[in-house]
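Entry 14. Two folds queued back to back today. First construct below, sequence then structure tokens.
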Amino acid sequence: VQPKLNASPAASPSSSSAAAAAEAKKIAAAALKKQEEDVLALTFSKREGMERRSQELKAARKAELENWYKMAKERERQGLNEEAVELATRAANGGLTDAQFFLGAFYANGKGINQDYTQAVKWFKLAAAKNSSDAQYYLALCFANGAGVEKDTSAAYELWLQAAENGQTLSQYCLGACYDKGIGVAQNVKEAIAWYERAAENGNEQAQWRLTDLRSSASAT
């Protein structure tokens, strides 16, 4: 009787070891990839948490500044101007635009503090640079009159123009006056009337009176 031969020979010890090594390598690679993914997820989570915390701190700081400004306005209404200046200074130093304008007005008017146009100009400039129309208007007045800064009617005109275009009524009137009288810009009656009309539409009585004068002069000629 002939012995039966196996259809497939048993795997050799060397091939089994190679397969085990390959499987171990595959498992190690998967574990490393998972570890890297976990590290990235943790890093992203930490970054997201830091950004959220940063936003929360900024919001809290802004609320604090706005509260100081609100308190400053309340102290002013109560006639406690020195306290109003102290609170406004805190908020202004923190970068709050409204408080910077508010503090500039205190220095310009000498309320609760010695009148100081140089300081007024400093705070008006900071607020005007952040597009405060009221600050632009008052800073223009300082330039027009040489108060706390060298007189510069061209700079005054430019500031009034910025504020007027943003709807600040007093600046619209002043811009009309600049064109009317040739202050900081070439005289132009047509432009003067246009800006006086815009100011008059917003309730500025001086603009209404000047419009009447200009129209009367025009009809007389």
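Second construct, same run, same settings:
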Amino acid sequence: NVAGWKNVVDKVHEKDGLIYLQLWHMGRQSHTSFHPSTNDILSASAIPIKNATAKTIKGENVPYETPREMTKEDIKQTVRDYVKATRLAKDAGFDGVEIHSANGYLLDQFLQSSTNERSDEYGGSMENRIRFLREVVEALIADGAYPSNRIGFRLSPNGAFGDMGSEDNYEMFPYVAKEMDAYGLAYLHLMDGLGFGFHNKGKVVTPYDIRKNFSGPIIANVGLTKDIAEGLVRSGTVDLVAFGRLYISNPDLAERFENDWPLADSPPYETWWSPMGAKGYT
């Protein structure tokens, strides 16, 4: 895939743009049909996603499977996988990488107490639950494909996507931000907005809660309007803002904001990542 991605990266660079590669492991959100050699899916603990369906390799909707609790060797191998993927991103010319530790994917499954019931050094306390993320960050920095200031990470303390949400998130995620602040990372991509579903298991973690614990650049995301985004940036609470859904229905979103032009409505859910032709993300 390196050669294919290099074509994309080169086109972005020709327009003086920057592009980071988001690194993610689905953990329990995957399906065994994608892993024929192991017939396995992995997570922090053997806790399946409830009341939702997974996609098979054939695109079929099926109940989520129960993942296998990762062994310590599984964790070490996955850290090595992140290092290898980062090297490949460098070979393709990406300007940096973002560690996806949000949205109920593998690293988030270790961070949150609702999905991590381990009794070893990777479970229980906040210090233990952050260990996997810390090991990934430290391994990428030590490998040196990118310096620490070209490595970002993503958190979603309020989200319910992937059957997530924990009663202690209000304590856990500012702690994660504070611990990660020591590494001099490129940014923290914070999915703080509630427009993608709130878990309702505790207090909302706000950008200000994170700003008090993280001195590097913060990117706010999810359900923002132009006015809210400008307020967050002007106040110094965050440094940048990100828009996703509005870009699907408004590919010229920046120009619409700049000129106060009206916006097309956000696209329906089924168009976000399914092939829908001209009606979807093309």
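Quick look at the second one. The chain is about 35% helix and 10% strand. The first strand starts at residue 20 and ends at 23.
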